[in-house]
Amino acid sequence: MSRQQPSPVPAPDGADLRSDCSRCFGLCCVALPFAASADFAANKDASTPCGNLQADFRCGIHTQLRDRGYRGCTVFECFGAGQKVSQITFGGDDWRRHPGSARQMFAVFPVVRQLQELLHYLAEGLALPAARPVHPELRRAFDRTERLSLGSAEDITALDVPALRHEVNTLLLRVGELVRAGVPGRTRNHRGADLIGARLKGANLRGANLRGAYLIAADLSRADLRSADLIGADLRDADLAGADLTGAIFLTQSQLNAARGDAATRLPAGLDRPAHWTAAR
After folding, report:
1. What is the DSSP letter of 221?
2. What predicted TM-score, i.e. pTM, was given to this entire model?
3. 122 Rama sector, left if φ>0, alpha if ψ -120 to 50, beta otherwise
4. In the chain, at which end, N or C, are there fewer CB atoms within 10 A of the end residue's CB?
């Protein structure tokens, strides 16, 4: 009997782990709440459609979101949860034509969004040669999380997501350690550090542990962030102009969208330069 080969792992920037609004029923615009703030121009309750959501589930001000006060929308990333819930969990039956399923659909979406985020990180770990010692464990965790994300609506809403996140995070911590071990010299540990507004221009943060660090409005211009672990780091309004993020791990498009950068900022493969970033300074 031939041994079954593992299924291909989606790349971190693969279509199934990135949002595809054309196949979604506008779930992030309905299921999630937001409050009037610097990120949102108005209040909206959970399970209530945003006033800008059109009949075709598209945003009526998509090209003007930042100018109209909805910067938070431009930062959000569902990692493909929207299309998975819309097209797979609920089989393409939208909440407008089938209002009886709306409450359940809106409850499932944020759970699947968390599962898709975990899949994104696990896929990235599987693509890193330095993490090869834990690839078998990452593969098992990826396959299990994928199966859970494809369960019934009832099974999904009953999941113990915090427990799953803890299990996956243990593996991701190991991935970070393996990657940073390959960086020459001593690396910095700023895990969970309060670096709000910190002046880190030109800082040597190569291989640094910045997991969960608060880097809001920090000056990271021209900083060396190669191979840094940025999982969960808060980069809102951080200045990344000219910074080198080559090989930085667990950095998401959402984090980049929340930051400020320019044409000279060097990004990891698979991530896009945000449209609102400036030209090189």
Report:
1. T
2. 0.92
3. alpha
4. N
Q: In degrees rounded to 5, what are phi and psi of residue 219? A: -90, 100
How confident is the prediction along the chain (281 residues), in pLDDT tens digits per residue? 333 344 444 544 455 899 999 999 999 999 999 999 989 999 999 999 999 999 999 999 998 999 999 999 999 999 999 999 999 999 999 999 999 999 999 999 999 999 999 999 999 999 999 999 999 999 999 999 999 999 999 999 999 999 999 999 999 999 999 999 999 999 999 999 999 999 999 999 999 999 999 999 999 999 999 999 999 999 999 999 999 999 999 999 999 999 999 999 999 988 999 989 987 66
Look up residue 87 and give its two tokens: 């097209």
Q: What region, left, alpha or beta, does residue 222 occupy, with left being phi > 0 and alpha being psi -120 to 50 degrees?
A: left
Q: Are 19 and 83 in contact (CB under 8 A)?
A: yes
Q: Which ranges constitute the DSSP H helices of 217-274?
A: 253-258
Per the document, the length of the chain is 281
Q: Say which residue the tokens 């003007």 belong to.
A: 64
The residues pairing with 34 across neighbouring beta strands, listed in sequence order, are 44
Q: DSSP string covering 131-170, please?
A: GGGGHHHHHHHHHHHHHHHTS-HHHHHT--HHHHHHHHHH
